[in-house]
Each structure stands twice: as structure tokens, then as C-alpha cells.
Here is the input.
Amino acid sequence: MTVKIVIKRMVTKNKESSLLPLIKALRIATTKQNGYISGETLQRIDKPGETVVVSTWESAADWNRWIENPERIQLQKKIDALLGKETEYQMYTHA
Here is the structure.
């Protein structure tokens, strides 16, 4: 059963340029993972700085393997340190 992962981040203007290389590295690594299907990044219109990534995975197990991947953990720690707040994750499936 496919799952959708919603990843929410708050990004201030002064940190966008520093964040971009980390997000690109994370995206490249994600696309190489077993079970990864697709992803898109959305920016909230009425709340500047709020960004949501929606990624689709073949299964929750595939996502869980990725969430525990040392490469992902290292990149995520850098992102969270830069933003000063932990990234939020939510998992959904079709009703």
C-alpha cells in the first residue's frame, strides 16, 4: 500500500541560500531509495517561509528504512540545526 509523507519546514529568508544545497542533497539521495515513487515541494502562499514536501513511497516499510538511513539522518541534522527547529513528518495513506 502506498503512503504519502508530508514533511513540513519553516524557512526564514536569511537561511534559504544555506538550506538549498542541503535540500538538493537530500532530494538526490531520496530518489535513489528503494520504494521511493515521487515528491513535490510546495510553498505556502499566505505564510511565507512555510514549505511542505509531499513524497510518495511504495510502503511504510520503505519510508521507515529511509528515515533510519545514516546519510538521511546526517543531512537532516544539518537542516534542523540550520533552521533551529526539528522537521515535522506525517504519514498518510489513501482512505
About this structure: The helical segments are 16-31, 60-67, 70-83. The radius of gyration is 13 Å. Residues 43 and 95 are 25 Å apart (CA to CA). Strands lie at 3-10, 36-43, 50-57, 88-92.
